[in-house]
Amino acid sequence: MLYAVSGPSTRISYRRSRLDYHGLQRRRLVPARLRVSASLPDANGVKVEYTPWLIVGLGNPGNKYHGTRHNIGFEMIDRISQEEGILLNTIQSKALIGIGSIGEVPILLAKPQAYMNFSGESVGPLAAYYQVPLRHILVVYDEMNLPNGVLRLAPKGGHGYHNGLKNVMGHLDGSREFPRLCIGIGNPPGSMDMKAYLLQKFSFEERKEIDAALEQGNGAVKNLVLNGFNHITTRFNLGQKYKYHKV
């Protein structure tokens, strides 16, 4: 099992390679293993070890899909990357990844680049390579069954006919026992085609709600990584459920 020992600094080793899976020259080399150096003991003087997290946002690669409803998972990864100062600058297992930490806990951020319906081709291999347990694989994706900008953080669940999530489950041996952060995008209006709706950009008002949701989601993810599912998560989900209800 891969563990990272608590400490304020990270030390990552790389395996030398010149080409990525598209045959393009890499800006950074693929990490061979994630290693975090530790210098801070706990109250008893014993060094504390942390299991890393794999946080994956689902979406489609390319400028064509940037800012669309179906790519909200990518936006959440970008927000965490910015807030925690983690560079997404390496290609591994058909995903754009970045390695860093939240607090003292090591994390691996990933944006699969094989298109939404094949997201599992990145998640499965990354989880196996870094030996991340299911309980530490957080998948972030868009959810039409939630109002726009409403979030839900759950420890497990089904795929709800989301093809990207369904593919991820298929590459995790069909398991549903992994956390997920759902970001509401609402349902298509009237008789609008679902695919067209998913690939549409947010309106001005919707974008304001989404930007606020990304900020709230970043805080929820940080709490999850540091403390697991706890009373703060319960309060977060309750607040999200009624965030647009006026008393």
Give an account of the 3D structure.
There is one protein chain. With 247 residues, this protein is of the alpha/beta class. 29% of the residues lie in helices and 21% in strands. It is built from six helices and eleven strands. The strands form three sheets. A seven-stranded mixed β-sheet has the order 6-7-8-5-9-11-10, with helices on both faces. A two-stranded antiparallel sheet has the order 1-4. A two-stranded antiparallel ribbon has the order 2-3. A hairpin with a 2-residue loop joins strand 7 (95-102) and strand 8. Helix 1 packs across helix 5 and helix 2 (120-129) runs parallel beside helix 3 (163-170). The radius of gyration is 18 Å and the shape is globular. The model is unreliable at 1-40 (pLDDT under 50).
List keywords for this structure.
247 residues; 29% helix; 6 helices; alpha/beta; 21% strand; seven-stranded mixed β-sheet; two-stranded antiparallel ribbon; 11 strands; disordered N terminus
Low-confidence stretches: 1-40
Mean pLDDT level: 85
Oligomer: single chain
Strand arrangement across the biggest beta sheet: 6-7-8-5-9-11-10
Category from helices, strands and their pairing = alpha/beta
H/I helix tally: 6
Q: What is the CA-based Rg, rounded? A: 18 Å
Overall helicity: 25-40%
Shape: globular
N-to-C series of helices and strands? EEEEEHEEEHEEHEHHH
Largest β sheet strand count, sense and barrel closure: 7 strands, mixed
User: Count of DSSP E strands?
Assistant: 11
Distance between the termini: 49 Å
How much of the sequence lies in strands comes to: 15-25%
